[in-house]
Amino acid sequence: MKKFVINLPDRQDRMEKFANTNSDKLDQVSVMPAVDGRKLTYEELIDGGFDTDKYWRDPILKRTLTWGEVGCFLSHYELWQRCAEDEEQVPYMVIEDDAVFQRHSNELLQYLGDFEFLYLSHCEQKEAGAQHITPELIKPCYPYWTTAYIVTPEAAKKLIETDIQRNIIPVDEYLPRMLDKMHAAAFVDPPVKQMPREEAGTNVEPSSEADFVVDFKTYALTCGDYEDRMGALLESSRRCGVRLTNVIKHPWAGGTMEGPGGGQKLCDLKAWIEDNCLEDYDVILFTDAFDTFYCRDLETIVGRFLGYKKEIVFSAEQYLWPDKSLRFPPSHTKFRYLNSGTFIGRVGEIKRMLGNDMTYTMDDQLYLQKQYLTGRFNATLDYEGYIFATNDSMWEIRNGVPYHPGTKCFSCIYHGNGGDGAKEHFRSLFTKAHPEQKYLVVRDWQTIGQEMLLIDFMTPAQCQEWIDLSEHHGGWNPHPADKFPSHDIHLKNLGLWEEMEDHWKRVIAPITNKVWAPSLHYHLRKAFTMKYSEDTQKTLGFHTDASLVTGSVKLNDDYEGATLVFPRQNFNNHDIPVGKMILFPGPLTHGHYVEPLKSGTKYSATFWTARFEGDYLDP
Question: For the CA atoms of 533, 537, 542, 547, what is the dihedral angle to 10 degrees?
């Protein structure tokens, strides 16, 4: 028999405690480095040939799968594969690092006998279903825990020769499902106990929204017929990196919203779902069009939704409208009643709630309130405004997001439902949450060449403002010691340094850190406007930058020549639009030069990032 203990490499504290606890009862054990699911992405999981069971819900906790559970499963699965393929064809004792042996491990193999799988530790979930085999062994019915067990090559082959690789669930949920396919047994008095979680900790249960597996698509939707009235929603969603889709199918015929009405948005939402053949496990995030704005990215919103452990979460408001005869249960906050203006949920449950009796002229809020109150749907209300904030004068903007001192919650999306007072408060909050910006906030990038990215940075109008500011300042002078002198003006001299450093840190650095990991952003090293003209410079020689990651922006295009060329990458910026930023590694591989200017005047902006903390190049 071979023995393996599964341990996360960064949890040596657990390994030390395991070794100290079991030193007199366990020998010749190999350490199996566990898969840290928290460091995986869903794309990486798919690329590895795995996938998840998207309909699985924890039968007790009612939540979806966590990355800790995925990592745990992959660790056990790898040992099953090894056992099945082991040339010696011997059983494996699989142990987790929170196991506490009560008897010496070498004594336990004798109990395996003809069994293919032997639980050394378990927690039976259906006591009445377990059957005695011998005075010491039982046939388990639905055992939890995978703290320690012995698996034979025969059982290991059965465990891996199913569809589980593409339908991952927690290990202690999968093994009970396989009991009828394996000759399995467990101890009446388990010889291995499990350390209390308060003593050993856990890497399986979620500690934040990021711990849940996002193995589905999320569609951010709205329904509005006049885009000029959707300015707050469109601008805020763009800044938060949310790709918004308008589901309106026909010109608005759902009423003025001054009285009951608005059914069109539910009808058009249902039609859009049907037209696009969405999967039932996918997620829809819906917001009204004219009086909502985003303050958080989609990843945060979805993570918070998963934390609710429900299939649909509706926003909650403090006033019951339009039918005051309805009876809602009490709430621990003033926000007690379902508001239909913002909600998030699984497609399958939303389809069940959107019946076939809807019309354009019915009231959408009343319809959803009555459906919710039937209790037939796995839905809840966001009583504290954890995802959705609804109109209340107490909402304020803190750190760029809505905050309510009564519920102590920072929200993600604000809905200014109500009359003129609500709309005025809505506009005030939006202005504070999304002040006018000089730079575009982006979350996505485009790969345009070998280790080269393209992102949005400024609008053409903003680029012209930058040119005007630079020309107004004047002083296009090269540094006398520069081997590749450029006629430039530093951003510090233009008064743009602090805001640019802040924008780079918040928006651009997360992209470069992700693409070129483990490279880290320290700070900007140098940033400047460059000018190519008859009276400054017309070209720039072949060189690399004294920069970890360089950003380059074309500020205008009304000139000829002066193309930025990367010969090793067989790339140039001739067709790159004004305001887009090229990002590339600066110091070695991406040598570049500027072809001679033929006519006109070229302006560009260049950004160098520091190679280590404190690496500044001041003007």
Answer: -90
Residue 15, CA atoms < 13 Å, CB-side half-sphere: 15
Q: What is the DSSP letter of 549?
A: E
Dihedral, CA of residue 411, residue 414, residue 417 and residue 420, to nearest 10: 120
> What homologous superfamily does CATH list for 446-609?
q2cbj1_9rhob like domain (2.60.120.620)
Only one residue has tokens 């196991």, namely 99
pLDDT digits (tens, 9 = 90+) for 140-179: 999 989 999 999 999 999 999 999 999 999 999 999 999 9
Read out DSSP for 198-235? HHH--SSS-SSGGGB---S-EEEEEE-S-GGG-HHHHH
pTM confidence score = 0.74
Q: Which of 336, 339, 335, 332 is nearest to 369 (CA)?
A: 339
**Best CATH choice for the domain 2-210 from the list 1.10.1740, 3.90.550, 3.30.1760, 3.30.70:** 3.90.550
- Say which residues have a Cβ less than 8 Å from residue 435's Cβ, sequence separation at least 6: none
Rg (CA), the chain: 30
377's enclosing H/E stretch is: none
CA distances to 15, 31, 96, 525 from 2, in Å: 18, 11, 14, 55
